[in-house]
Design goal:
Elements lengths: L31 E4 L1 H7 L7 H14 L3 E5 L5 H12 L8 E7 L2 H10 L5 E9 L2 H8 L3 H20 L5 E9 L6 H15 L7 E7 L6 H14 L6 E7 L6 H10 L4 E4 L13 H9 L12 H12 L20 H17 L32 H12 L5 H18 L5 H12 L7 E9 L5 E9 L2 E9 L2 H10 L6 E11 L6 E10 L4 E8 L2 H15 L1
Parallel strand pairs: 1-2, 1-8, 2-3, 3-4, 4-5, 5-6, 6-7, 7-8
Antiparallel strand pairs: 9-10, 10-11, 12-13, 13-14
Helix pairs in contact: 2-11, 3-4, 4-6, 6-7, 7-8, 8-9, 12-13, 13-14, 14-15, 16-17
Bound molecules: acetyl coenzyme *A and 3-methyl-2-oxobutanoic acid.
Length: about 550
Amino acid sequence: MLRDPSLKYRPFPTVDLPDRQWPSRTITKAPRWLSTDLRDGNQALIDPMDAEKKTRFFDLLVKVGLKEIEVGFPSAGATEFDFISGLVRDGRIPDDVAIQVLTQSRRDLIERSFESLEGAKTAIVHLYNAVSPAWRKIVFGMTRDEVKTIAVEGAKVLRDEAAKRPNTRWQFEYSPETFSTAELDFSVEVCAAVMDVLRPTVDAPIILNLPATVECATPNVYADQIEWFGRSIPNREAVVISLHTHNDRGTGVAAAELGLMAGADRVEGCLLGNGERTGNCDLVTVALNMYTQGTDPRLDLSNIDEIVKTVEYATRIPVHPRTPYAGDLVFTAFSGSHQDAIKKGFAAQAARNDTLWEVPYLPIDPADLGRSYEAVIRVNSQSGKGGVAWVLEQDKGLKLPKRMQADFSRHVQALADESSRELNAADIWGAFERAYLPGDADRFELRDYEETGASGERVFVGRVAIDGEERSLSGRGNGLISGVIAALADSTGPALDVVDYSEHAIGHGAGAQAVAYLECRTGDGRTVWGVGIDSDIATASVRAVLSAANRA
Ligand SMILES: CC(=O)SCCNC(=O)CCNC(=O)[C@H](O)C(C)(C)COP(=O)(O)OP(=O)(O)OC[C@H]1O[C@@H](n2cnc3c(N)ncnc32)[C@H](O)[C@@H]1OP(=O)(O)O
Ligand SMILES: CC(C)C(=O)C(=O)O
């Protein structure tokens, strides 16, 4: 890298628009969406999609609710042409969906593009040519006027080819490619010249698509450019302003959002941001950003995993686990304080019982995207007691008392540090069993027992193996638990003071079990926890006492 990058690069010029309006606007309704997955997305792949992959992707786009779908570049070759003409011929295009095709502004390519659409009920033909200085100079070697002529001549072919096929409802789209790096007045001049040929009306508007072909500036500059263009283009009511952002600086989504605030009507992009180089604007993110502000994006993204699966299959590019809304890890917290807040958030949500979503660290309800809550909290050495307790509750239905969560968390932390890996639900349950449930190293093991007594006094009479030798014990107390504690204390067992006791059912119906949690203080002032699980709640509490005695 250069120590002085200014020798090689220049700051991007800003737009002179002191009375810009977009910063104080918000997005309050869904735009028209166009998916260019099968065109911009496809042309950027190592292995472009074959007809089977394109068909599967097309069906997904229809299912998601896209009403405008750029299906390819028909003049690129037979694969593209046959797929597009096949879609039309086989009647795969729903009546409320318009397919779109892209063509360079060259007569033979435009004619071929129209041929691919023969018989379509409705279609959008998208014409483009680059207009910015570098492309004029380097790619075309042409003046401004000559570049404008490319667009105008192409538009004439569009007009004439459409006129030959009156049974199709044609719409036209023109992209001054490289718009964001071109002089604004020149883009307006070229677009206006194209409009002079195609004569759009309010009822049959032209789509003027304004690409950030290569993203070269902060998104506010793009928004200024869009607002400037919208104010300057003649016959604005007959124009649909469309955005087509790329992500070279990592702000393709932000640019599209600010572009909408700046007055655009339509957004082009790809599901999950595939596309040339760093990708196109990610339509899923823009739509769900809208959704989380309470605006219906009019796209159905309720099965995000199906979307990911199909996109990965068709593009052969894995979706990054941190991809907004869709990545594998985006609703997962490993860290203790995040887990604690999420757990409390779910509890508060359930207690409030209204529809408003307010769960810390989760900007959207994963269930809205078809995701379960299972993966919301996962445990490793960065986790805390709340996260561990959550996993145990989700997996085994155990709701540990707060102070016991801290006790158990120490066992899990030791295991996580020792293993240096994520702990799954089975690991956590194993740690719980070792910490509190009967095991080989235990001194006291319950064989059977009876409970007798009347008028406020309970008597525990039981057979308990102590250090492997079966003994008959009995003890009295004002309840069963104190009876068991008394029985143990009389026979070499520890002296235990009960500090806290709680119990709850696990599951419902015939298979339901009960769990008892007991917090005790030992004679030497330590706190020990005991847990008992049994189909009978009284037996669970007896087991909990023995569990505490074993830990004492
Ligand atoms: C920003 C975008 O994503 S635009 C879409 C890009 N997508 C694609 O290119 C995928 C499909 N493309 C193709 O299959 C081929 O490029 C084709 C069929 C379109 C053209 O192929 P070829 O005729 O071999 O030309 P090639 O691809 O090399 O294109 C370069 C020529 O097109 C000219 N050209 C480029 N864009 C345009 C345009 N929009 N209008 C008119 N001419 C153009 C260039 O100036 C160059 O002309 P030259 O050969 O006289 O110097
Ligand atoms: C053809 C245009 C819209 C394009 O893909 C781009 O500029 O990125």
